[in-house]
């Protein structure tokens, strides 16, 4: 969504939808403390809904980029080491793959075709990307190009780094899984265990009586 449309939507929600919903809430609940509290929550939350939605979408897009980037880099390494230039390799990756990384590479190629310099195009990609890894790749390629370093060696090192980061992220997620399961255990399983234990105790007492 364009920036102007985003701010227009927020203005409509802030000055139109939120006040209307607040008035409807006050009429339904009344002008007491509860109604005023609900109305205030609506005024505060409704205008922020677009920001919340776009932040969640950006986070999901960034996560998808993190997953796809190592494979895209591997393909780019094969293309460059096979004799293609960096621009030719980027074009092959953009055409042969799907997903957010390929989308960003196609935007990169369009910028360069429109006359934007390679370094400026990579810097623009790094700034708009929700993926820290993709931003790192862009800055590293820019520095390697500026210093005259081997692009193939740089890309292979980046590919290994991205795979290591993805493996570390998977290990971190696995370590956090038991912690995330604790609320489920506390809410559902532990009360059920108490019911079973107490039920058995009650039955034993009744039999003794």
Description:
With 209 residues, the chain is mainly alpha-helical. It has one domain (3-168). It has 8 helices and no strands. It has helices spanning 3-29, 33-45, 49-81, 86-96, 100-113, 118-128, 132-147, 151-208. The radius of gyration is 27 Å and the shape is flat.
Helix coverage percent: over 70%
- The share of residues in extended strands comes to under 5%
Class per helix and strand makeup: mainly alpha
User: Could you name the ranges where pLDDT drops below 50 across 5 or more consecutive residues?
Assistant: none
Radius of gyration (Å): 27 Å
Largest sheet: none
> Average pLDDT, to the nearest integer?
80
Principal-axes geometry comes out as flat
**Domains (count):** 1
Distance between the termini: 73 Å
Number of strands: 0
Count of alpha/pi helices = 8
SSE pattern, N- to C-terminal? HHHHHHHH
Summarize the structure.
The chain contains eight helices and no strands.
Fold topology:
Layout: H1 3-29, H2 33-45, H3 49-81, H4 86-96, H5 100-113, H6 118-128, H7 132-147, H8 151-208
Key phrases:
8 helices; mainly alpha
